[in-house]
Specification:
The chain contains six helices and three strands, in the order H-H-E-H-H-E-E-H-H. Helix 3 crosses helix 4. It is globular, with a radius of gyration of 19 Å.
């Protein structure tokens, strides 16, 4: 599969296409590092909570593009598995805050280690210069994406007011 047929100064649209293909390939590779006992939906919850400790259920549902009842059921299962903890907000007793438990943090660390092992096998077959270029590009991508996600999280959401 050839995905790198782009001009010397690639446009964001072309890079988005290649990045999308890379994401799909990552999903297949990461399938070798199973996410059990968490489903794909539950894994998304864990990843959102890891970066947004203490958010409420409504905000989590919004981030997942889901409904509060569905998100609550996901959190119920994750809490039963010991991955998520709920706490009453000190500001409003009706509001429940969600946190990743120590077991949830350990699960994500283990999953990342297994995924990285799968990726290392692929990266080891790439020329060193291409690995360095990939690293530089991914670091820049991660910085911009994290900033954008943070900025979006800081914007007031009319649905949670």
């Amino acid at each position: 599969m050839t995905v790198t047929s782009f001009s010397p100064r690639p446009e964001p649209r072309e890079i988005a296409r290649v990045t999308s293909t890379a994401g799909e390939l990552l999903e297949v590779l990461w399938g070798q590092a199973a996410t059990a006992p968490a489903s794909a939906s539950q894994l998304r919850v864990l990843l959102v909570l890891e970066h947004n400790e203490g958010i409420n259920l409504r905000t989590l549902a919004d981030r997942l593009a889901s409904t509060p009842p569905s998100t609550s059921r996901l959190c119920d299962r994750l809490q039963a598995a010991g991955f998520v903890e709920r706490d009453i907000s000190p500001a409003d007793r009706r509001e429940v805050r969600l946190y990743l438990s120590s077991r949830g943090h350990a699960f994500l660390a283990d999953l990342r280690a297994r995924r990285e092992k799968v990726l290392q096998a692929v990266l080891a077959q790439m020329p060193a210069a291409k690995r360095a270029a990939l690293l530089e590009g991914l670091e820049a991508f991660c910085q911009v994406a994290a900033t954008q996600m943070h900025d979006e999280a800081e914007q007031p959401d009319s649905r949670s007011a």
